[in-house]
Design goal:
The structure is a single chain. This protein is mostly helical. It contains ten helices and two strands; from the N terminus they run ααααββαααααα. It has a two-stranded antiparallel ribbon with strand order 1-2.
Amino acid sequence: MQDFLQSNMDEFLPLRDVVFNTLRQAILTGELKPGERLMEIHLADRLGVSRTPIREAIRKLELEGLVTMIPRRGAEVAQITEKSMKDVLEVRRALDALCAELACDRITDEELENLRLACDAFETAVKTKDAKKIAQADVALHDIIVRATGNQRLIQLVNNLSEQMYRYRFEYIKDSSQHQNLIDEHRIIYQSIVCKDKKTAADAARTHIDNQEKAIMCQIRLDRENGKK
């Protein structure tokens, strides 16, 4: 987390925004785990900043749903619950299917080539076994499809969900047994868009989300059972 903070210090951003981005990144990637308490003094010492930007960052993270305020305990990283996951993935499932359909009609030759390269880049990232690199490659691939719709309202809606979606997707990507499924699903979506097969593209996009939901649901329930032991 300290490294991420330092790497962003050169950007022309207020310190509070750099701290916010650092803490958000730590939550999204699981470095700060669900249920972990966010102690202002501890985080300030860890990042080498005062408590003020930490306090402001926590307040913004609460608004994004990534932090929960618990009476008499203070701030905690929001839990990944079945309900919160279902709410996010239910919306994203519909949006991704629509994006795939629209991309069949509107994607340019350049974007199609970029999508092919993104599929290759994702496979290369999988070989590194680095979850962060895999997640970044996955996001980059889906972003091409979303932008190819040319629908600014739709792009905005997807972007608004992107942070929450990244958190769930990262949990899925950490499970290496799912990597080949991801590769195969990406290829089906790509080939469907190449062939302008809207039905197959939309169905594949929905299946892509459904499989993530099933896997994350199993992990949530496993974590809950382990917590009871």
